[in-house]
């Protein structure tokens, strides 16, 4: 499975080329964790959720993809907990009540897995 | 390519089991159009963009997926125009200025295509 992180996210802050982007800070912090071998962290240039960033996507082959937003660059534990639950769900669907509180309140969208050709 | 439509969307209206869902009305109206053979319309039970529905997703193999929201069940022409532009873009990326105005203002999120295994 993959954890995509929007690294161009400024969390609505003015452009400041000297300061690191909030999304890049979040990815750096997540990268410092010890992830299972089947989890790939991937930076993305704009997930187009700019009004509600920082933003991550959880996805994987045969799974629903989930977009979560309104994350701060310090919410590493929240993302890690949500990713672990997602990883444990074969179809990627974690029951709403089982998700971290921030994920319950800040699910931006979800997309079903592709269907097998008919 | 696929056009996914959230058919459980109530557009924030109270539950009324006797009335058709706004998202289902949108799908029905879209289904009445004459689509190219490589476009598949697909109903989805909740795209989890409930606070900003109705919601559609444009996606396809090797393409970026785009989620658009805040659609009314009558915005068939907007969705059709946006879908045609998406279909014409090999990677699914339609320049922001070329999109229908509603799509410019109501892009909920986008997700990159899976990368080839490294």
Strand and helix layout:
Two copies of one chain form a homodimer.
Chain A: E1 2-6, H1 22-31, E2 40-44, E3 56-59, E4 65-68, H2 76-88, H3 101-105, E5 107-111
Parallel strand pairs in A: 1-2
Antiparallel strand pairs in A: 1-3, 3-4, 4-5
**What is the C-level CATH assignment of chain A?**
Alpha Beta
Kindly report the spatial arrangement of strands forming the biggest sheet of chain A: 2-1-3-4-5
CATH fold node name of chain A: Glutaredoxin
Percent of residues of chain A in beta strands? Answer: 15-25%
Number of strands of chain A: 5
Number of domains of chain A: 1
Second-tier CATH architecture of chain A: 3-Layer(aba) Sandwich
Profile the largest sheet of chain A.
Answer: 5 strands, mixed
Would you give an account of this structure?
The structure is a homodimer of 118-residue chains. Chain A has 3 helices and 5 strands; from the N terminus they run βαβββααβ. Chain A has 118 residues and is α+β, with helices and mostly antiparallel strands. Chain A has one domain: Glutaredoxin (3-Layer(aba) Sandwich), CATH 3.40.30. The radius of gyration of chain A is 14 Å and the shape is globular. At the A-B interface, strand 4 and strand 5 of A face strand 4 and strand 5 of B. Chains A, B: Pfam families: DUF1636. Chains A, B: It comes from Rhodobaculum claviforme.
């Amino acid at each position: 499975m993959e954890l995509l992180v929007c690294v161009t996210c400024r969390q609505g802050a003015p452009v400041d080329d000297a300061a690191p982007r909030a999304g890049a800070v979040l990815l750096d912090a997540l990268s410092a964790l010890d992830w299972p071998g089947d989890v790939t962290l991937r930076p993305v240039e704009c997930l187009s959720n700019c009004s509600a960033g920082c933003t991550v996507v959880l996805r994987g082959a045969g799974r629903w993809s989930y977009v979560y937003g309104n994350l701060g660059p310090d919410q590493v534990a929240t993302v890690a907990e949500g990713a672990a639950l997602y990883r444990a769900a074969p179809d990627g669907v974690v029951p709403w009540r089982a998700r971290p509180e921030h994920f319950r309140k800040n699910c931006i969208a979800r997309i079903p897995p592709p269907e097998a050709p008919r």
